[in-house]
Here is the input.
Amino acid sequence: MKSITLNAQSITKHFGGVVALRDGSLDANSGEVLALVGANGSGKSTLAKIITGVIDRDSGEIVYNAEPVVFKNPLAAHIAGVTAVYQELSLVPSMTVAENIWLTHEPLTRFGQVDTRKTVSDTRKLLKLFEGTYQSTLRPNAVVDSLPPDEKQIVEILKAISRNPDVLILDEATASLDSRQVECLFNLIKEWKEQNMALIFVSHRMDEIFRIADRAVVLRNGNSVGEVKIAESSEAEIVSLMIGHESGLGRTERARLEIADEIALELIDLKTDVLAGVNFSVKKGEMVGIGGIRGQGQTNLLHTLFGNKRFEGQIKLFGETMRPNHPHAAMKKDIALVPGDRATQGLLLIRSILENLHLPNWQAYGIPLNIRKATSDANGISKTLNMIMESLDAPVSSLSGGNAQKVIIGKWLLRDPKLLLLDDPTKGVDVGTKAEFYNLLDRLCGSGTTILFYSSDDQELIDLCPRVLVMQDGFIKADLSGDNLTKANLVSTSMGAGLDAVNNNTVVEHEQ
Amino acid sequence: MSNKVDLQEGWRNFNRKNTYVLSLIIFIITTVAYLLLQPNVFDEGVISRLLTSNFRTWLPVILLAIGQTIVMLGGGLDLSSGALVSLGNVILAISITSNEEPWFNLLIVLGVVALGLIAGFFNGILTAYLGLQPMITTFATSFVYSGLALLILPNPWGNIPREYTKVYRNTSWFGIPLALFIIALILIIWAIIKNRRYGHFLLAVGGKADAAYYTGVRVRRIRISTYVISGLFASLAAICYTLLTGSGSAVSGAEMTLSAITAAILGGTSMAGGSGSLIGSVLGAIILGTIKNLISLSKMDSWYRVLVNATVIILALASPGIINLIRRKK
Here is the structure.
């Protein structure tokens, strides 16, 4: 395998008004594993996708073997020997394992037909790399759609490696693998490294980075903020690079309201397809943050409580066991959910603000509809929330992100919920609206509403919530409150590392 | 144990690769019913005559269904192909006469084919490059094509020389009509193309376009090519239709679009793209034609005819949803 060098220099990328990458730089060399580390939204995946030509950059330069290059599309990157294992899989579900692995570089017969026999036998050879870590149903002719997530991930890895790349990017490739498969992958990575491949390893798991990487580039808010040699570094150093100087500030003190002793919500060994046994309890009027890397079961947890998922285990609301099997059942118990994807899950975009506000509430206005009362209630809530809008009859699509989010919150506040579930509600919301929103949540807690608040923004959790539960792999990894609730602890526990605070006993133990 | 896995996988793969199984069953049932209602089926020459008269009638819709299937495999939809048949039909009807030299008439035919390719390319650019909704875009372009047809020939008219129409209507070898040979030829060509890279790319684009793009498939080119192929088949259908009727009408293809889509879906092609087969669509089109024949043989009132026809179309269009419902129950 030929030796290569790949330098990405000051790459920038905007998505609409949002800056995904301000100054993304890294250099990768043959025979080395480079880890790309960063918190949620720090720009790791964006940088990886720009290097492989999936998305265009705004500015900056990629120098490949001392030559500036532009990969206009993934095909160009493949031809140059750069390929990636993607986080959201690049497999076609309706095609077989062999068809997927060899797509675009199928071995052909003399007549230009795809040599099916060869693709199958070559796929068998590739599968040997992971021998013993998958079920017998994973075979060349299996349809990808029928495979479990870990085996799909294995196919994705084999697909990338089937191209014999010079540079291989592994973007969260271990997220859905079990420990044996990870072990197997790491042995392969060592082998590939010896064969002079350049590897870029994107991971959220501190232990994996320390096991496999030689160097690490740390991204923070779209900037490459530092580079460390793993052998000479520590978890603490990387975490402090990830969170920057903000860590020293600690969290802003807010007026703490007295919390009643009544337990509002108790979960006992809650399991779903994603959750692996969740236990915690929340008191009435408490606001509990849920943190961790994106996609560790936070959204699933909130949707389960809202009756949107099948589950095992027990949910107790004010001491009473309930089995929410439909959002309607959860609504009857005065539970409200502000979903993460506003446009598709929260709003009827083309309908009016009034209609959206009253979507869950029309029943309260009787038959025939008391439209006057409905309108005055809607006016009331829009004043409370300080909504900026043309009129109640304007379509929701005419609102800004922050105001649209207010409509979703408003429609539930009209029902006066006892338990409010928030799924990353401030994503794409401007700073001013965020501040108003925080005040609103404080007021709600004061009046006895219990709030579960998932946010992908660590700083927000620390600022807002006196207590934060950190999730990883469908477990509650840590229960942080008081002095333990620091950004450093939040980041390190969400990456599976220990607390760096003195008090270590708040880490929740679990069996894997 | 491993045997059972083999069987299950084998069955799943068989179903995936042979999406036309259901249509084959319906085809056999309708065809048997049709033959039973025919008097003297086993007399000499009857079968051959039935084949000839039916397939020359069905061929335009079969061709259109084939083009539509290619588009649907790539994840698109072409609502303009019927209008393109009308356009090709009227152009041929006013241009081809026995007064002209044969080479001139051939030139006209080639021109119609070229027009189909260009119109398909236009559809492809609009949907694949500009990212417009295929359903809306091709619905809109269908008005352009049918409008042009109406401009060229406001009232049905035509006088295609008999020596041309005779070739299409009556040619047969060994009792097998020309139309069946054309279909067989297309299916053979497709069997070859399907297992070339293009076939794999087409199914990948229809199955999950993002994944195909990440893998290095030129998604837009593939998408455009499907519309070009659909345009080609629309012009071939126009030629066959003109030879069948010997005349032209600006609304000749209007009903064919829905028939072609219904045929494709009846044949197991997925509206979502990525799975289906040409043979299924051919069977689907034959089923639709046979059902029409059955209705007319049963001497129903014309109102009931429309009702039965509509019911078949609704069932065909809804069948993927119904099958999904049953699967989920399990």
